[in-house]
Amino acid sequence: MKKVYSRPRSLKKRSFHYCPGCGHSIIHRLISEVIDEMDLQDKIIGIPPPGCSVFAYNYLDIDMTECAHGRGAAVATGIKRASPNTVVFTYQGDGDLAAIGTAETIHAANREERITVIFVNNAVYGMTGGQMAPTTMLGQKTTTSPYGREVAKEGHTVKMSEILSMVEGAVYIERTAVNSPKNINKTKKAISKAFQVQIDDLGFSMVEILSPCPTNWKKDPLESWQWVDKEMVKTFPLSVIIDRTKVE
């Protein structure tokens, strides 16, 4: 019998600590599959800042280093410049990337740093209790916006992919999701393309991934997957935001 599905070489044999229905475990798997298929295991370095994925080094069998909250793009810049033949990626949540790490991310893109950002967006601060994040949507209830986010009080939802698309050094940005087999397959292709952009020395690349957070959304896993389609994509439509690798 032909074996068609197995654990990727670059994914360690350990049980994930993530909540049931969380998208992190799926995304870890996809990154591992891409690493194997592109033969990058000995050439890639991952940078997971603080957040739910702070222990990503327990699961991905590659070189990894931690960094301070929000400083993923800055640390990735240093590593890539010191070792330009490696593939360097950050793995960041929305609270990390779109709040304390906004400046680092925007300026790394503006400098055309040859790094890749995997941006996991679940619209809340996941690890610390479900507080409102920059990406929390208008009307969305969180532990710190129990009546729903309001423009007059908390401002508009921050859309990092659209913001970064206006930065000239950003070459490829796509927003995907991991709430269905179809979207999971698209996410894998986007990650592969983002790594290839870096390998081809074209500039900054980012994949924003809409990821369910059942615990902080107060929903079961199935409801969370459905909520991505029913609500999140209204604010964060799935699409290639920008692709400057194509010849106009």
Structural notes for this entry:
The structure is a single chain. By secondary structure, the protein is of the alpha/beta class. It has a single domain (24-243), classed as Rossmann fold (3-Layer(aba) Sandwich). The chain is built from nine helices and nine strands. It has helices at residues 24-37, 72-82, 94-100, 102-110, 151-154, 160-165, 181-199, 214-217, 221-235; strands at residues 44-47, 63-64, 87-93, 116-121, 124-125, 131-132, 170-177, 204-210, 239-243. The strands form two sheets. A seven-stranded mixed sheet has the order 2-1-3-4-8-7-9, with helices on both faces. The chain has a two-stranded antiparallel sheet with strand order 5-6. The chain is globular and about 50 Å long. The protein starts with 23 loop residues before the first helix and ends in a 5-residue tail after the last strand. The model has no long low-confidence stretch (mean pLDDT 94).
Number of helices: 9
Domains (count)? 1
Shape: globular
Fraction in helix:
25-40%
- CATH-wise, what's the superfamily? Thiamin diphosphate (ThDP)-binding fold, Pyr/PP domains
State the distance separating the first and last CA atoms. Answer: 47 Å
Low-pLDDT regions: none
Let me know the largest β-sheet.
7 strands, mixed
The beta-strand count equals 9
Radius of gyration: 17 Å
According to CATH, the fold-level topology is: Rossmann fold
Short key terms for the protein model shown above:
two-stranded antiparallel ribbon, 17% strand, Rossmann fold, seven-stranded mixed sheet, globular
